[in-house]
Design goal:
By secondary structure, the chain is of the alpha+beta class. The chain folds into three domains: about 70-100 and about 225-255, Beta Barrel (OB fold (Dihydrolipoamide Acetyltransferase, E2P)), CATH 2.40.50.100; about 105-220; about 260-365, Elongation Factor Tu (Ef-tu), domain 3. It is built from six helices and 15 strands. The radius of gyration is 49 Å and the shape is elongated.
């Protein structure tokens, strides 16, 4: 009995042969289970990636852009001082450079002298006009006197008291005084026109003209100092002291990086559910591992090809359909990562969060809807 009892456990411990039907079936079941698990996981990941691609729209055709302000001079001259360097940050109102102001200071002095001369000339012409007015009054008095004398002479002549010769002399005197009066009146009109008194406020016309010239000279002098139009970084500086420049010549550029934005060129099939205000998350090649945020500002009214220098003529030749791209402007959240400044031209990968749910995406797959 002891031998039989010891033999029983030995028989139970004997493994089945590896090529037995029962062992092969277990391996097949395990393999099928693993394969089924892999397929389920693959389908789950595939559906998740598909849904994500529909709710989070991504592109790698996107770049940082900003407005480039060209700084130029309004006047010609020789550069005296340049107070900024390449890539320097400046604030609005900072002095960038100064043109030699001596030529314009001389012009301002000449204009100021012209104002004084105009005031003196106007005063002298007014005095001439007053003198002419006095001459008219004197001629008028002489004319009135000759009229009275002629009237008395005619009465005396009718009584045969006054000879005809004296009456003729008084008549001639009246005509002469009348002509002198007209001459004095014409001289007064001429003096008034010269003094600018013939029209309202005309006495100040010459003075205002010279003052306008003085204001222009002062304005030209103020243009010799060029200030920063806004906050930004200096770039493309092509000017040094001693260089002679012309009006309108570009001297440097100012880039306000704090107002930069992203231009993302999405495929036309990707903008179906895009609209302004949607949240955007993007990464920048220059800062790996960092995520920035923003939002859609606007979508361009046409594709990039439609506004190119040579737009395609699809109505001619053999037409080949090409997927077009639509530029989307994305504003950058300044508080997303203020320590890292994004430069113009950097490559970014934006992801637009459309806000659609998985059920919305799956409904599109329903062929019976």
């Amino acid at each position: 009995m002891a031998e039989e009892t010891s033999a029983a456990p030995e028989q139970q411990a004997i493994p089945e042969p590896p090529d037995s039907p029962k062992a092969g079936g277990n391996r097949k079941i395990k393999g099928l289970a693993i394969l089924l698990t892999v397929i389920i996981i693959g389908i789950w990941f595939g559906m998740r990636m598909f849904i994500t691609s529909k709710t989070h729209i991504e592109t790698d055709n996107a770049f940082i852009e900003a407005r480039i302000v060209s700084v130029s001079s309004k006047v010609s001259g020789t550069v005296g001082r340049v107070l900024v360097n390449d890539n320097q940050f400046v604030k609005q109102g900072d002095l960038l450079l100064e043109i030699d102001p001596r030529d314009y200071q001389v012009r301002r002095a000449q204009a100021a002298a012209g104002v004084g001369m105009a005031e003196n000339e106007t005063g002298g012409e007014q005095m001439k006009a007053e003198g002419a007015r006095a001459a008219v009054q004197s001629a008028k008095a002489r004319f009135d006197q000759t009229v009275l004398d002629l009237n008395r002479a005619e009465k005396l002549y009718s009584r045969d008291v006054l000879p005809k010769e004296q009456l003729d002399r008084l008549t001639t005197a009246r005509r002469v005084s009348e002509a002198q009066l007209k001459e004095a009146e014409e001289a007064l009109k001429r003096a008034q026109v010269e003094a600018g008194l013939a029209i309202k406020a005309g006495s100040k016309a010459k003075i205002l003209q010279r003052k306008a010239q003085l204001d222009e000279a002062e304005l030209q002098l103020s243009y010799t100092k060029i200030y920063a139009p806004r906050n930004g970084y200096i770039t493309r500086k092509s000017i040094e002291p001693g260089v002679n420049i012309q009006a309108g010549q570009p001297l440097m550029a100012l880039v306000p990086l704090q107002d930069a934005w992203i231009t993302a060129n999405y495929k036309e099939r990707q903008i179906t559910w895009m609209k302004p205000g949607q949240k955007v998350e993007f990464s920048v090649d220059a800062y790996p591992g960092r995520t920035f945020s923003g939002s859609i500002d606007s979508i361009m009214a046409g594709t990039g090809a439609a506004f190119s220098l040579l737009p395609p003529e699809n109505a001619t030749g053999n037409y080949v359909k090409v997927v077009q791209r639509v530029p989307v402007k994305i504003t950058i959240d300044k508080n997303s990562d203020p320590e890292r400044l994004l430069r113009v031209g950097m490559s970014v990968i934006p992801v637009v969060v459309t806000g659609r749910s998985a059920s919305d995406v799956l409904k599109e797959l329903n062929p019976f809807k």
